[in-house]
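Workshop exercise sheet. Pairs work together: one partner reads the sequence aloud, the other fills in the structure field after running the prediction. Swap roles for the next sheet.
Pair: D.N. / O.F.
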Amino acid sequence: MTELTKRKRSAERTRAQILDAAVDHFAEAGLDGARVDAIAAASGSNKRMIYAHFGSKEGLYDAALRSVIEAALDAMRATAHPDLPPEERTRRLVRGYMHFLAEHPRFVRFLAWQGLANTQDTSVATADLVGAGLDRLVQLAERGVADGVFQPVGDLRHLVVAVNGMCLGFFHRRAQLEALWGVDLSDPATIDALADVVERLVLGGLRAAPVTAASHRDASEPTR
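Structure field:
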């Protein structure tokens, strides 16, 4: 291994350690509350290295946000192959996303802080990732409509955002629901039960009504 390769790998390792520590701190305190000194200490690095890799605290925040979104999108791509029938792929995506949220509380907290901040700059910084993920889900719904298994539902982007909000809602209120229901939202069986509910709501609303002989005849009769 050459000296250049060693230095490159060392830099990549340092960057990854800084990002991991940053996700922890931003998930706990948001952009305004997290401290660069604390992130540097937790990563075994220093502020100079953070600024060398990310330019600023805001640049580090954007990179950390991208990293958690990329992890979620990678998990979803692994959950359901695009060649699956639309209904089965939708079912697997919902179930996979629910389990991902249960297993990655940092992601949930990070998105909660991001939603509270609602800053244009960080939203723009991740727009390409979020947009690509949204487009893939819209294409899935469009395929279902084209195949006749889903009914048209207007702007499909609205549907995707609504389903995402439904899934996240359980985990944004995790501590409250665990205390209220006496359940453990890290228990896979509990997550499966919640996913069953979300799947029924989503697929029940998406499924196209079956075409019967009577409905076909009614549709073909002229209006009087």
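Discussion prompt: The chain has twelve helices and no strands. What would you look at next?
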